[in-house]
Amino acid sequence: MTASDLLDLDTPSLLLDEQRMERNIRRLQSHLSVLRVPLRPHLKTAKSIEIAQRLMRDPSGPATVSTLQEAEAFADAGVRDLLYAVGIAPGKLPRVVALRRRGVDLSVILDSLDQARAVAAACSEHRMRIPVLIEIDSDGHRAGVQPGDPLLIEVGRVLHEGGADLRGVMTHAGGSYGSRNAAELENAAEQERAAVMRCAEELRAAGLPAPVVSVGSTPTAHFARRLDGVTEVRAGVFVFMDLVMAGIGVCSVDDIAISVLAAVIGHRPDKNQLLVDAGWMALSRDRGTASQAVDWGYGRVCDIAGRPIGELMVSQANQEHGIIESREPGSPVPALPIGTRVRILPNHACATAAQHLGYVVLRDGAPVARWPRIPSGW
Amino acid sequence: MTASDLLDLDTPSLLLDEQRMERNIRRLQSHLSVLRVPLRPHLKTAKSIEIAQRLMRDPSGPATVSTLQEAEAFADAGVRDLLYAVGIAPGKLPRVVALRRRGVDLSVILDSLDQARAVAAACSEHRMRIPVLIEIDSDGHRAGVQPGDPLLIEVGRVLHEGGADLRGVMTHAGGSYGSRNAAELENAAEQERAAVMRCAEELRAAGLPAPVVSVGSTPTAHFARRLDGVTEVRAGVFVFMDLVMAGIGVCSVDDIAISVLAAVIGHRPDKNQLLVDAGWMALSRDRGTASQAVDWGYGRVCDIAGRPIGELMVSQANQEHGIIESREPGSPVPALPIGTRVRILPNHACATAAQHLGYVVLRDGAPVARWPRIPSGW
Q: Where are the annotated coiled coils located (chains A, B) (predicted)?
């Protein structure tokens, strides 16, 4: 680390407040330890070996990934228990087989007979019991077999009789991102648990194995009041938190651990605007707060110490330009001098972090290390 | 290149149709050669040495960049004439000086007295005449001195008398992206030209140098009917084109040279949806067509040969999931089998390409090469 001060860093840079991150990790770990369910952290948010080591209970895992490229990179770093939590495309099975041959206990997920048949064919071809969780649709969010659909047992039978290692069920309560208060979050968590428990019981009643019952989303993980029957919880964004999570009440703004350091490069007093050198390339195009009660544009603007400056936000973003305005129309924007450094909190931590090659790690507000992200790609 | 067929490529992958790209390049070059103005292509869209070589009239340039990291990477590849077209942050001047010491004729832009004074101070400190263009606001889009504002001459004098190499003026008609027809595009081009010409003449009338008059945006570059007095045109997205450009009539859908190859990983007949393994990580979060007459969500869906499939679009995107629906509510979505490969055309080529490490180059529809992108970062 060459820079000893935020004023020496190139702009834009992605900053990571290590103490906030550690607090976020401890908070979820302690909540889940009370509920007596282990965490299988999702590594897609951070995509960093250093951060994965702080998230996992053991250097070998368990953990969750969103691409096989992540699985390969974390396997290279010694992680041995991985769930690839995107419905398997049959064309990806050779890479799954190769990872398992390397000694990585990699599981896949699926929700259709066609996928189950493709996995069974791969098990037969490669003489390997590929572990599978059947994806359950607990809230109409995206993918998964719906509870009560006889397809569940059909898929289970194709897998079990076809030589796969049917491990059970998983779901992701993505709909919980639309919650507006603690009661809705608690309900979303219980709905998630109930849907996947019902499906596990249906599989067992049909004589099929279902040792694993996996749930997960950052909002439901924090607001679950009971997780009876659940064997693991997955969550990713909690490590950094973001404005979307603050908007639904999962965290406060002071919990957000990443920000984009930027410099003021222009003034438009006629428009009550400032320009900074962080556009969508540094912030991402994510507009996650657009559908929330408080819309922060492309991010909330803080001073160099990380304290919000009034209601300032990045209202518009071009590739390398951000336009700063106040969220309150007519409220004056301070004429921060050219070169002033600001920090921009992200709407969506996964998307903003993905725009950067690595993290500048801050401790007590000062840069102490650089942690690379694993390269993007699939 | 190992894959000889699109069916052998990993999904998602970024595909580049080389023949469409070459046609796009020839089209703009031939339009500008009729108008007798050279192109200074913007390399921020492609960020590729191989593509830069096809865009520039000479391996040494000229070209435009959006970050100093691009400038350094293209300098390493032999480009010697570069414009860094984002208002200069004073903290970046040491890197500008270092690039110029390496023999790169790098110019910067600015629109304020504070920036001009910072450049003059750097010129004095490093005994170097840093070349500068004053940015002009031709359409209220973003940055720049407004025509008629006495600030123009004040900034010009600070630079000229402070030891900088005042080269003239530049503008970017970003507002042209809101045009809806050829007449509006022609008007935007003439407005861009007129604003910057007026400012060049004001500088000259004040006894200040202004040899360079630089304009540029893909829409105005294609629709300019005359460019009298303009000395160079900058444009970037034209190399690939995209749905936003098609939506404002700058190109047709058949001109779009990049697409994201994806595989079907799920069916939701109850919702008239398909799932693919390309989410915002592969497509970007850009929603550029949202404000146009025809909104393509996160991209238009084509078959593996690149032919649009009805009105299919990616309606929602999670990190590694895309949800495909028809743009016409109620119109049935074909039940493409699991594993079927589709190609997704981007809203915004710059944003989608930025999500990938490189291009799979297609000639006559078959993969023939891989071209890396220069690493992201600043």
A: none
